[in-house]
Recover the amino acids of this structure.
């Protein structure tokens, strides 16, 4: 091997460990860039306070001048990103809680059939009414 200094090896590209490290660093930066880009675009579409024209303008800026556009967006509107995210999460949690309450409150088919059989046994329902209600429950 020639008498190269470590700096020359890195510059010449004959230092594979440094090349691997730099490749991994660029890959990390690339993935981070896409994460930020998608986060900004998601935040834009989630924000109800912006008009459609303002959203379109931000999208154009982010696409035409990607690095500068995302940086400016984070500086100008970054403070509100977390509050918009929290608001969206609260709305989603409300929807889930509402769905769970509705599902839990609705009587099951077995409960409805049991009540029907009790009504039939007491004589409150005729056999035909019982069969129609049973068919309706079982769908």
């Amino acid at each position: 091997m020639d008498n190269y200094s470590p700096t020359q090896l890195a510059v010449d590209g004959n230092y594979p460990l440094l090349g691997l490290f730099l490749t991994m660093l660029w890959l990390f930066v690339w993935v981070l860039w896409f994460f930020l880009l998608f986060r900004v675009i998601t935040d834009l579409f989630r924000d109800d306070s912006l008009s459609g024209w303002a959203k379109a303008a931000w999208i154009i800026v982010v696409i035409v001048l990607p690095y500068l556009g995302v940086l400016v967006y984070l500086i100008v509107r970054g403070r509100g990103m977390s509050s918009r995210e929290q608001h969206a999460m609260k709305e989603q949690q409300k929807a889930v809680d509402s769905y769970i309450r509705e599902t839990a409150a609705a009587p099951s088919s077995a409960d409805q059939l049991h009540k029907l059989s009790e009504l039939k046994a007491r004589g409150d329902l005729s056999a035909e009414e019982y069969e129609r209600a049973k068919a309706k429950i079982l769908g």
The chain has a mean pLDDT of 85. The chain has two domains: 6-106, 107-139. Residues 6-106 form one domain. The CA atoms of residues 40 and 74 lie 8 Å apart.
